[in-house]
């Protein structure tokens, strides 16, 4: 097992490869961040197993719930992963995978604002898999025992004239409902299925989500390169059960997808995670605007 | 407009008929509780705009939850005069057979015997077959003002893991959703389970008929004793309207009591309780439910 401590502004984040660890006690396959330790609250536990880990390769838009028979299911977990870096930069990477042949990497660096961590990821398809129309990477954050498991984002339905704060928590893990951008050219596959007759699923106006981890606010923001779609997803129990309690740990996830991909071309997205005490509906907007350079507006152009 | 103040243990609840009111400023049709004022926190607003109001008659299980305006029971009770009667220890709203569905109904509110609690009982009498004639019921919402989280929480099971009961949380991302929560042992599975809902969109079931949620410093617990009726819980993230100053909407935390294979001119009843008070955690909601229902919450479902 290899790990590297990243010294960040107000906290330490420790990145692991795919081997199990005893401190924290985490099973194999959970690469990425296993520790996020605030300097002024070192005993608090925020991570259930891991955050921002290379988890699945998505080769079918509709299969976010991760059927085990799919070739990319847990595929990055099951290979040796290379960890390199130092206290101000850590990189995980793997070459083309045995089933999907997608090569991936993720790099973590301290952010320039308090309690922020930046990351960038890249993936390179080396052959067509599944329908051959789409490929992407799925990265979860397994949250430790929050009182409220919902994710929140600014969005609406197609045709909305005013954006709102949307809150979402699925009642079960088995839900393909995920959140695409309002202006996507690739509407989620479920919008064309029977799901539409039962429930309308919102879209995001800006590529960030927020949530409460008890006394902490959490903001995950993304900036995909041109042509890469971002979807958010959540599971109420993806992070497993909280031992000896009737509670489960949610997963707050995202997927970066490329439709109409070319072989041997790398696709990239960058992002930031901020975890600190905050009012999530106001401070997350401040954090997103500071990082992205965008101004959040509440009225659409339509 | 008529109203009655109920003097309860730690708060005052004011019940209104269907007429509009200025204080609070609420439009016509929003019968039920428009004011829930706590003795030690009288300025905190909780209702947006009403709770436990007679709202819809459900005659088509699935369309009823979607609130289709074309359904005959849609907002039907809002649109008729209601009789309000009672005193500071009991308030009763009632109506005769409705013009579209023929359903007569009432709800009665009384102070509960524990701090922060209000008891209620509902009755409805179908006088004609409506819709497909297979089921009929009433839909009562609670429109919540600016909660910390719009989610409802309940103890329940999933179809994949139907033995281990867990706390389930749910918040829909949009108002337009028929997804609702039936009892784990129901003889009448929700229609959406049989109508080709993709298996990838699995919906939990409740194990005990109560829900819990967070409203600011207070916790909200709604419990039911449906007797031989079916109880379903539902929520909308914006049923209680939108707050333009914050870009957040007020959710509706709703329930439906349904009778399958109903008889005409027979009254069906359910009773319930709402508890509003600060709780250290949701285990206190379990305590409230156990104290009221006389049941003990078990975390493993008998198979």
Short description:
The complex is a heterodimer of chains A (302) and B (303). Chain A has 302 residues and is mostly beta strands.
Apparent shape of chain A: globular
CATH third-level topology of chain A: Beta-galactosidase, Chain A, domain 5
Largest sheet of chain A: 7 strands, antiparallel
Tell me about the biggest sheet of chain B?
Answer: 7 strands, antiparallel
Strand content of chain B: 35-45%
**Top-tier CATH class of chain B:** Mainly Beta
The tally of strands of chain B reads: 20
How many H/I helical runs of chain B? 2
The domain tally of chain A reads 1
CATH architecture of chain B: Distorted Sandwich
Strand tally of chain A is 20
Radius of gyration of chain A: 18 Å
pLDDT averaged over residues of chain A: 94
Number of domains of chain B: 1
Name the quaternary structure: heterodimer
Strand order of the largest sheet of chain B: 6-7-8-9-20-15-14
Q: State the low-pLDDT regions of chain B, or none.
A: none
CATH domain topology of chain B: Beta-galactosidase, Chain A, domain 5
Percent range of helical residues of chain A? under 10%
The most extensive interface between chains reads: A-B, 46 and 46 residues
- Name of the top-level CATH class of chain A: Mainly Beta
List the helices and strands and how they pair.
The complex is a heterodimer of chains A (302) and B (303).
Chain A: E1 3-8, E2 11-16, E3 21-22, E4 25-26, E5 32-38, E6 47-51, E7 56-58, E8 82-86, E9 89-94, E10 102-110, E11 116-125, E12 134-143, E13 151-156, E14 164-168, E15 203-204, E16 208-213, E17 216-224, E18 228-235, E19 251-259, E20 267-276, H1 280-292
Antiparallel strand pairs in A: 1-2, 2-5, 3-4, 6-12, 7-12, 8-9, 9-10, 10-11, 11-20, 12-19, 13-14, 13-15, 16-17, 17-20, 18-19
Chain B: E1 3-8, E2 11-16, E3 32-38, E4 47-51, E5 56-58, H1 61-66, E6 83-87, E7 90-95, E8 103-111, E9 117-126, E10 135-144, E11 152-157, E12 166-170, E13 205-206, E14 210-215, E15 218-225, E16 230-236, E17 242-243, E18 248-249, E19 252-260, E20 268-277, H2 283-293
Antiparallel strand pairs in B: 1-2, 2-3, 4-10, 5-10, 6-7, 7-8, 8-9, 9-20, 10-19, 11-12, 11-13, 14-15, 15-20, 16-19, 17-18
């Amino acid at each position: 097992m290899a790990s590297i401590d990243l010294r960040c502004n107000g906290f330490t984040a420790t990145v692991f490869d795919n081997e199990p660890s005893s401190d924290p006690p985490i099973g194999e396959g959970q690469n990425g961040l296993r520790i996020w330790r605030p300097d002024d609250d070192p005993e608090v536990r925020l991570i259930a197993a891991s955050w921002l880990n290379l988890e699945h390769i998505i080769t079918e838009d509709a299969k976010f719930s991760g059927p085990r028979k799919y070739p990319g299911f847990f595929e990055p977990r099951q290979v040796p992963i290379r960890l390199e870096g130092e206290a101000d930069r850590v990189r995980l990477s793997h070459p083309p995978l045995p089933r999907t042949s997608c090569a991936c990497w993720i790099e973590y660096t301290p952010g320039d604002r308090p309690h922020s961590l930046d990351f960038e990821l890249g993936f390179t398809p080396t052959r067509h898999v599944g329908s051959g129309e789409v490929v992407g990477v799925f990265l979860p954050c397994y949250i430790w025992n929050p009182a409220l498991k919902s994710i929140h984002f600014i969005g609406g339905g197609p045709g909305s004239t005013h954006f709102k704060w949307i809150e979402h928590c699925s009642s079960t893990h088995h839900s393909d409902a995920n959140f695409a951008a309002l202006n996507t050219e690739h509407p989620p596959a479920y919008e064309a299925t029977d799901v539409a007759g039962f429930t309308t699923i919102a879209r995001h106006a800006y590529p960030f989500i927020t949530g409460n981890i008890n006394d902490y606010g959490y903001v995950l923001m993304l900036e995909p390169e041109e042509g890469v779609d971002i979807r958010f997803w959540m599971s109420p129990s993806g992070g497993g059960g909280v031992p000896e309690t009737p509670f489960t740990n949610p997963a707050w996830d995202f997927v970066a997808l490329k439709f109409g991909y070319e072989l041997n071309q790398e696709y990239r997205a960058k992002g930031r995670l901020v975890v600190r005490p905050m009012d999530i509906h106001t401070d997350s907007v401040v954090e997103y605007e500071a990082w992205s350079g965008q101004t959040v507006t509440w009225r659409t152009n339509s | 407009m008529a109203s009655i103040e109920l003097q309860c243990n730690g708060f005052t609840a004011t019940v209104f008929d269907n007429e509009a009111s200025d204080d609070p400023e609420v439009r016509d049709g929003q019968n039920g509780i428009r004011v829930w004022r706590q003795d030690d926190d009288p300025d905190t607003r909780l209702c947006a705009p009403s709770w436990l109001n007679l709202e819809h008659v459900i005659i088509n299980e699935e369309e009823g939850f979607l609130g289709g305006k074309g359904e005959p029971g849609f907002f039907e009770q809002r649109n008729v005069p209601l009789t309000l009667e009672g005193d500071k220890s009991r308030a009763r709203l009632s109506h005769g057979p409705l013009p579209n569905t023929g359903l007569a109904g009432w709800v009665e509110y009384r102070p509960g015997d524990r701090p922060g609690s209000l008891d209620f009982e509902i009755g409805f009498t179908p006088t004609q077959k409506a819709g497909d004639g297979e089921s009929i019921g009433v839909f009562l919402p609670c429109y919540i003002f600016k909660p910390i989280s719009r989610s409802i929480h309940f103890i329940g099971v999933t179809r994949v893991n139907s033995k281990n009961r867990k706390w389930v949380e749910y918040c829909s991302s949009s108002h337009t959703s028929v997804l609702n929560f039936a009892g784990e042992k129901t003889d009448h599975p929700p229609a959406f389970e049989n109508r080709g809902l993709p298996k990838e969109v699995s919906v939990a079931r409740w194990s005990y008929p109560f829900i819990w949620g967070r409203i600011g410093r207070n916790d909200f617990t709604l419990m039911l004793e449906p007797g031989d009726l079916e109880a379903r819980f539902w929520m909308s993230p914006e049923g209680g309207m939108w707050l333009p100053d914050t870009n957040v909407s007020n959710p509706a935390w709703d329930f439906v009591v349904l009778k399958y294979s109903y008889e005409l001119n027979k009254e069906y009843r359910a009773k319930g309780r709402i508890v509003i008070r600060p709780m250290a955690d949701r285990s206190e909601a379990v305590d409230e439910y156990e104290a009221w229902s006389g049941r003990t919450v078990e975390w493993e479902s008998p198979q």
